[in-house]
Structure to design on (599 residues):
């Protein structure tokens, strides 16, 4: 991966950063294996398979088995990256994720591909807007929602380095490389302040971070100084950064996820019991109608304009 | 590395006699645990005991002082509710003090109703929900295959448990990959929680099912230790995963419990307990 400073323009598919990092890790550490449910193509793992054919384990269309096999590989000393469409990886095998991975503290890295509403027109069966809620309530599994290629690489590296279960939510939607200083560092459990501001705060993760930055830009033009906080690490979550955001008096959260149980809920849990402040939770209200991913985001107000308007609403402006 | 089995230089009959004595101890200890805790799953504890004893006191390679020794044989109790038998076995094998068995299911005891690998040495994966052991065991066997390691992986599933589809996903993978280091023992006591397996959703012909999934299949009397040992000790080579259909008796060894579904999670009263202990000693 290039350093953050050299990422300039264009949109990136975070799966590319995922597989590039995994191939690099796999070359350096033969414990790294990939487990897939006939999803070599959709997980973009063809390169990994070609380089390490013995270490690409395709269990076929069998997600419960896939997650259990991942836990078994970990028992045998492997670092298992289990990749599949997030909707099936988490939904179909939720009990395996709970018992075999989280509760067993197995060294398994679950990579939920094409999360959120990336599958657009394929409909709610293929959307994965509940995954963060399901997994973060387990507590014993790290939950990461990277926002761009650099952060995706950092998440994959951090997951490989730690001994224990991790879920990484990886989108296929094009996202820009976020502006960061060259010495930017990623730490599990730490939020990232991408823009300082004192009139209110926008907390976002995944594909919504770039929109939050855009909203803050628009607000600045109107004289409103909004802080933008990237909440990639959903579990553990950075309570300090959330409480500091609450000090501004107004928080808008935005996520490509259900409004129930995700980032907004996690922030509300902390804010409401410590420093109550005005909040607006942006996300999906429930199962989505037919439409492209972009359409569905517009339809539910997951746009820079609505993020900005929501913060204005909280500020009474 | 200490050999946990005392079988070298012994005849099959001598080995079996040793295992039988361990099994007797495990049965008595498991029943006392259920009696003291006033809960548990005695029927399934007693049907699985002989296979457990054969594994831990003859077949398997392990070191209780180093429970995560990389070259250990692995065992997974997929019917995770049979903890009376499992914990008794692990304590007898030296993984934790036998005195601790008195804490079974007591508040804050690590001896939960279902096993937790992060608290109890010797447990490989947390089971309880049915149909979880097979995929994990398959993953372990794939790791061994990749590493060309010689450790083996054993699983005990219940028979009713085979109604869970995840077992068959894993069985298909194991057959496809010819995971010869994998041995499944089906505790075929023909009873599930509420009724007979064949009256609920029939499993027969179970041998044909596993054969069709690419497994070698052997059917034995699951309480015949002399029949079990050669199948488990590595002296019966197989190029495919091995399924041992162990025909067992739920509640084995206690006359009033045998073959009665109500003893799946029944708890004996004092009089029954006394009688049961006498029968197990006989």
């Amino acid at each position: 991966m290039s350093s953050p400073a050299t990422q300039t323009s264009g949109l990136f598919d975070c799966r590319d950063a995922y597989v590039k990092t995994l191939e690099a890790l796999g070359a350096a550490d033969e414990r790294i294996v990939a487990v897939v449910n006939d999803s070599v193509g959709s997980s973009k793992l063809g390169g990994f398979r070609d380089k390490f054919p013995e270490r690409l384990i395709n269990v076929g269309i069998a997600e419960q088995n896939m997650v259990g096999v991942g836990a078994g590989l970990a028992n045998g000393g492997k670092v298992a990256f289990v990749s599949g469409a997030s909707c099936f990886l988490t939904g179909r095998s939720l009990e395996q994720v709970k018992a075999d991975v989280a509760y067993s503290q197995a060294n398994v890295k679950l990579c939920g591909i094409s999360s959120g509403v990336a599958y657009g027109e394929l409909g709610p069966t293929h959307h994965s807007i509940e995954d963060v809620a399901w997994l973060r309530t387990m507590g014993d599994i790290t939950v990461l929602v990277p926002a761009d290629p650099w952060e995706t690489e950092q998440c994959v590296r951090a997951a490989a380095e730690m001994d224990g279960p991790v879920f990484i939510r990886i989108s296929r939607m094009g996202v820009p490389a976020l502006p960061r200083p060259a010495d930017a560092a990623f730490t599990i459990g730490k939020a990232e302040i991408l823009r300082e501001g004192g009139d209110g705060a926008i907390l976002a993760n995944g594909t919504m971070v770039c929109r939050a930055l855009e909203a803050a830009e628009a607000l600045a033009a109107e004289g409103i100084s909004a802080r933008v906080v990237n909440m990639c690490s959903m579990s553990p979550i950075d309570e300090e950064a959330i409480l500091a955001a609450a000090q501004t008096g107004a928080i808008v959260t935005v996520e490509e996820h259900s409004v129930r149980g995700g980032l907004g809920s996690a922030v509300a849990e902390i804010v409401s019991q410590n420093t109550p402040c005005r909040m607006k939770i942006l996300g999906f209200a429930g199962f989505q109608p037919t439409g492209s991913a972009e359409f569905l985001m517009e339809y539910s107000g997951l746009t820079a304009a609505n993020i900005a308007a929501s913060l204005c609403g909280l500020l009474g402006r | 590395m200490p050999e946990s089995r005392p079988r070298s230089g012994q005849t099959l009959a001598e080995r079996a006699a040793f295992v039988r004595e361990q099994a007797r101890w495990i049965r008595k200890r498991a029943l006392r645990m259920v009696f003291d805790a006033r809960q548990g799953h005695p029927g399934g504890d007693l049907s699985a005991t002989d296979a457990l004893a054969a594994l831990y006191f003859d077949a398997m390679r392990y070191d209780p002082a180093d429970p995560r020794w990389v070259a250990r044989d692995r065992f997974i109790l997929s019917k995770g509710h049979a903890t009376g038998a499992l914990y008794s076995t692990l304590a007898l094998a030296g993984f934790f003090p036998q005195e601790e068995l008195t804490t079974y299911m007591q508040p804050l005891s690590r001896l939960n109703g279902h096993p937790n690998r992060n608290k109890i040495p010797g447990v490989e994966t947390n089971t309880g929900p049915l149909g979880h052991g097979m995929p994990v065991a398959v993953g372990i066997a794939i790791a061994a295959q990749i590493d060309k390691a010689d450790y083996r992986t054993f699983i005990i599933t219940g028979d009713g448990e085979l109604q869970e589809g995840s077992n068959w996903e894993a069985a298909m993978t194991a057959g496809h990959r010819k995971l010869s280091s994998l041995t499944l023992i089906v505790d075929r006591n023909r009873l599930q929680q509420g009724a007979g397996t064949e009256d609920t959703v029939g499993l027969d012909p179970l041998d044909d099912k596993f054969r069709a999934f690419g497994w070698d299949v052997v059917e034995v009397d699951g309480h015949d230790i002399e029949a079990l040992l050669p199948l488990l000790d590595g002296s019966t080579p197989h190029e495919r995963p091995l399924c041992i259909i162990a025909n067992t008796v739920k509640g084995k060894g206690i006359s009033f419990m045998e073959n009665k579904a109500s003893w799946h999670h029944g708890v004996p009263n004092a009089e029954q307990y006394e009688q049961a202990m006498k029968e197990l000693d006989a």
